[in-house]
Every structure is written in C-alpha cells, then in structure tokens.
Amino acid sequence: MRSPGCYKIRMPINFVSAPTGHKAETIRLQNEPVDVTIKRKGLEGLQALPGIGESLARSIYQIVKSGRLGMLDRLRGEIEPEKVLASVPGIGPVMAERLHDELGIDSLEELEVAAHDGRLADLPGFGDKRIAGIRDSLATRLGRIRNTRKRICRLNLQ
Predict the structure, then answer these.
(1) Which of 38, 39, 32, 36 is nearest to 57 (CA)?
(2) Which string of DSSP letters, residue by residue, matches 12-48?
(3) Looking at residue 53, what DSSP letter applies?
(4) For 125-143, what is each residue's pLDDT tens digit?
C-alpha cells in the first residue's frame, strides 16, 4: 500500500501514437524547427502533428515563446511567492507583497493556515469579508489539488 503522498502515475498502454513511439520524436523528426512551425501555423500547426494534442501543443507553445513552462515552475516552486499569492481573488500584488514580507507566507497552503489562525485579521486591510472570500477560494483550489492526489493514489493501488 502506498503512502498518502504518492505520485507514481501509470502510463496508459495506448500512449504510443507518434510514428516512432515517442511524442518527442514527432517534434525531432519534423523538417523544420518547432519555432518556425509556430510562427507559420501557430497552435494549429502543432496540433496537426501526430500524437500532439491541444494540451501538449499549448505547453510546447509556451516553452517556445517564453522559455518556461508555468505548470513546471509552479511544481518546482520557482515562481515568486508574491505571484502565487496574488493569484487568489481579493489579494492584489501590493497585498501579496505585504503577506510575504510581514507574515513570511510563501505558499497557498501557508495562506490558508494564516486565514484560519487569525494572522490575516491582524493585518490592516483584511476584514472579515475579505478573509472569508480568501478561505472559500483556497478551500476550492486546494481541495481540488488534494482530491486529485487522492485519485492518483487510488489508481496506483489498483
């Protein structure tokens, strides 16, 4: 039995849809560099490649355009804490900076704890209504993440 924090994901058997068996090979075997394909045809050009769906095409597009993948940055924790905090409704860039500097909050989980333990109420600008909105937003966002982790673990136990 796996621990609650397990993340092993089984690869579906039908994953192989690119001509040589790997989606990376699809990109490597193209006659032109992927950035040229994006300039000429956009996302549709990527999606037209064998084995490249909408989600993977968007990820490739983001990497080519910015040199980064937002989802990977978040997973690695390389995104600035202020940007993560500012993604919560009711918290703008200035408030996010205050939370980080004055309370040392670096993650959504830490923000959720502060919203419940009274530390947010001690800061000017955080009234009952704003704190309630932050709690609701975080319960939804973090609950979805927790539920996804549970589903992944259940699949791995089967």
Answers:
(1) 38
(2) PGGG--STTS-HHHHHHTSSS-HHHHHHHHHHHHHHT
(3) -
(4) 999 999 999 999 998 888 7
> What's the CA gap between 87 and 124, in Å, rounded?
20
Q: How many CB atoms lie within 10 A of CB 60?
A: 22
* Residue 114, CA distances (Å) to 56, 78, 111, 124 in order: 36, 22, 5, 14
Task: Say if residue 98's pLDDT is above 90.
Answer: yes
Tokens of 59: 């990820």
Of 30, 97, 85, 90, give the one whose Cα is nearest residue 60.
30
Query: Taking a C-beta distance cutoff of 8 angstroms, is the pair 58, 43 a contact?
Result: yes
What pTM does this model have?
A: 0.47
